[in-house]
């Protein structure tokens, strides 16, 4: 069983999501559970008008997920999405591992290590500025 990191964008029925968001996300999670995927992060991304009608729908909700799953289960994911009443379309890609970690962290709302490093450098520069001010005041 080879686990890989996947970015999956689901296009969901916007009307069904508006009336029952927990039920629709529950159905997406059920699909992911059936293929044995570990959900790293997931959330609605964008709701809007579609370029052309899909299955009679003119609006759709893009639902972005980052998962770790067995590579042999991708065909099962495609089959389950076609059978779902809420999933209009889906797209599954394998992003580079560094990008996967960065995007899944930002999607879940956790600060990245880069943000913490930036805060540390800001603290260092403010300490240097205050020591310069003290030297100027002493002179």
Task: Walk me through this protein's architecture.
This protein is α+β, with helices and mostly antiparallel strands and 139 residues long. The protein has 2 domains: 3-108, Ribosomal protein S6/Translation elongation factor EF1B (Alpha-Beta Plaits), CATH 3.30.70; 112-139. Helices cover 49% and strands 35% of the residues. The protein has 5 helices and 4 strands, in the order βααββαβαα. The chain has a 4-stranded antiparallel β-sheet. The chain is globular. The chain starts with a strand and ends with a helix.
Strand order of the largest sheet: 2-3-1-4
Count of all domains: 2
CATH fold title of the largest domain: Alpha-Beta Plaits
What does the overall shape look like?
A: globular
- Quaternary state, please? single chain
Mean pLDDT level: 81
CA-atom Rg in angstroms: 22 Å
Name of the CATH architecture of the largest domain: 2-Layer Sandwich
Low-confidence stretches: 111-133
- Strand proportion, as a percent range, falls in 35-45%
Q: Biggest β-sheet: count, sense, barrel?
A: 4 strands, antiparallel
Query: Into which percent range does the helicity of residues fall?
Result: 40-55%
| CATH homologous superfamily heading of the largest domain | Ribosomal protein S6/Translation elongation factor EF1B
Sheet/helix structural class: alpha+beta
Compressed to H and E, one letter per element, the order equals: EHHEEHEHH
**Gap between N and C termini, in Å?**
70 Å
What is the C-level CATH assignment of the largest domain? Alpha Beta
* Overall number of strands: 4
Number of helices: 5
């Amino acid at each position: 069983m080879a686990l890989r990191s996947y970015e999956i964008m689901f296009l969901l029925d916007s009307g069904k999501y508006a009336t029952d968001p927990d039920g629709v996300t529950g159905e997406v999670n059920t699909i992911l559970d059936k293929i044995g995927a570990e959900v790293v992060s997931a959330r609605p991304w964008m709701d809007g008008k579609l370029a052309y009608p899909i299955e009679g729908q003119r609006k759709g909700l893009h639902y972005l997920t980052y998962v770790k799953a067995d590579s042999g289960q991708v065909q099962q994911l495609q089959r389950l999405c076609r059978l779902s009443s809420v999933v209009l379309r889906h797209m599954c890609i394998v992003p580079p591992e560094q990008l996967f970690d960065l995007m899944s962290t930002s999607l879940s709302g956790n600060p990245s290590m880069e943000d913490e490093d930036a805060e540390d450098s800001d603290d260092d520069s403010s300490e240097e500025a205050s020591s310069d001010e003290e030297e100027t005041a002493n002179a």
